[in-house]
Amino acid sequence: MSKKNSLLFLTVALTLILASCNRKTIYSHYEHTPLAGWEKNDTLKFTVPAITQSGTYEEEIALRVTTDYHFKELYLLVEQSLQNAGTARRNTLLCPLVSDEGAYEGKGTYYIQYVFPLGRIQLEQGELLHIDIRHNMKREILQGITDVGVRLKRTSD
């Protein structure tokens, strides 16, 4: 086996091992924002497939931001609805991105990644969760926000 093939095999094997170790994460998906900027009325939509096991789940919002984003924080409007239960809730999430000293709080150099807890939610087997996210900043178009993601992790049986 050549060095190149060995490296590829090792990379794939490690990816599969790491993915199987995190079985609590049941949903993780990113949506890209437009290159020209994320407009205030552009809603990013996420649909979590039908829940296979009832329980409590931890929700997180993930961001990928470049140094082109010139604000210390980001306000997000997060609207959630449960299709089968017919319930809805709306949150405003404050995402601090830069410290008072001007240092980025996330991980990375040019693409800086952040994860913010949204809260916990009780879900029943078979429920579909729809999540809509848009920014709530005074500026109509934001540059530097490249991706917005949603993660759902199981916390109890």
Supply the key terms.
four-stranded antiparallel sheet; single chain; about 160 residues
Q: Strand order within the widest sheet?
A: 1-10-4-7
Q: If you compute it from the alpha carbons, what radius of gyration comes out, rounded to the nearest whole angstrom?
A: 18 Å
Which stretches are poorly predicted, pLDDT < 50 over at least 5 residues?
8-21
Global outline: globular
Summarize it.
By secondary structure, this protein is mostly beta strands.
Describe the secondary-structure layout.
Layout: H1 3-21, E1 25-32, E2 38-39, E3 44-48, E4 55-65, E5 73-82, E6 87-96, E7 112-123, E8 129-135, E9 141-142, E10 145-154
Antiparallel strand pairs: 1-10, 2-9, 3-8, 4-7, 4-10, 5-6, 5-8
Describe the protein in words.
This protein is mostly beta strands and 157 residues long. The chain has one helix spanning 3-21, and strands at 25-32, 38-39, 44-48, 55-65, 73-82, 87-96, 112-123, 129-135, 141-142, 145-154. The protein is 12% helix and 49% strand. The strands form 3 sheets. It has a 4-stranded antiparallel beta sheet, with no helix packed on it. The longest helix has 19 residues, at 3-21. The radius of gyration is 18 Å and the shape is globular. It starts with a helix and ends with a strand. Mean pLDDT is 86; it is low at 8-21.
